[in-house]
Amino acid sequence: MKRRLLAAIFLLGSLVAAPGADTTSDFKLKPFGRGSWQEVLRAHAGRPTLVHFWGATCGPCKVELPLLGKFMKEHAGIEVVTISADLVPDLPGATRAMLEKAGLRPAENWIFSDGFVERLRFEIDPTWQGDIPRTLLIERDGTITTIEGSAEIPVLEQWSTRQRAAPK
C-alpha cells in the first residue's frame, strides 16, 4: 500500500514538473545589482524608454501592471523595462507570474538582487526613498521624467505621442 502511494506521489510530481507545465519556468529575470542602472541606460540610449519600478507585495502595482502590459502592446515604439524593487527577498516566482499575467513577459524584466537596496536606489536617483510604484520616462536625448506613484495611462499616452513626433 505504501509503495503504491509513493509511486502515485512520484508520478503526480513528475507530471506537474513536466516540460511546459509551468509557463514561467523558462522566464528569466535579470538580476539588478551594482552598475545595472548604467547598463539599462546604455542599452536604451537614443530610444524612448519607460522604466517601471514595482513590487509583488505592492497593491497599486498589482493594479497598474496589466495597464502597462496593454500600453506596451499598443505602443511598439516605446521600449519597456520593469524592475521589481520589492524589499521582500526571494520573490522571483511571484514576480514572473505577475509579469506574465500582466502581458509584460516581452518587456526587459529585472529584479533587485543586491541586499543593499539603498545603494541600488541611490544609483538610480539619489533622492529616491524607495516608494513604489515609480515610473521613469526616458526620452531619446536622455531626459528623464519621474512619476511617483501610479502612472496614469493618459499621461503615458501623451508622452508616447510626443516621442513619436520628436525627430529621430
Task: Name its key features.
Glutaredoxin; 42% helix; 168 residues; 6 strands; 18% strand; disordered N terminus; six-stranded mixed sheet; alpha/beta; 6 helices
Overview of the molecule:
This protein has 168 residues and is of the alpha/beta class. It has a single domain (24-165), classed as Glutaredoxin (3-Layer(aba) Sandwich), CATH 3.40.30. Helix content is 42%, strand content 18%. The chain is globular, with a radius of gyration of 19 Å. Residues 1-24 have low confidence and may be disordered.
Supply the CATH class.
Answer: Alpha Beta
Tell me the CATH architecture: 3-Layer(aba) Sandwich
In CATH terms, the superfamily is: Glutaredoxin
- Computed over alpha carbons, the radius of gyration is 19 Å
Task: Specify the helix fraction band.
Answer: 40-55%
Helix/strand-derived class? alpha/beta
What is the domain tally? 1
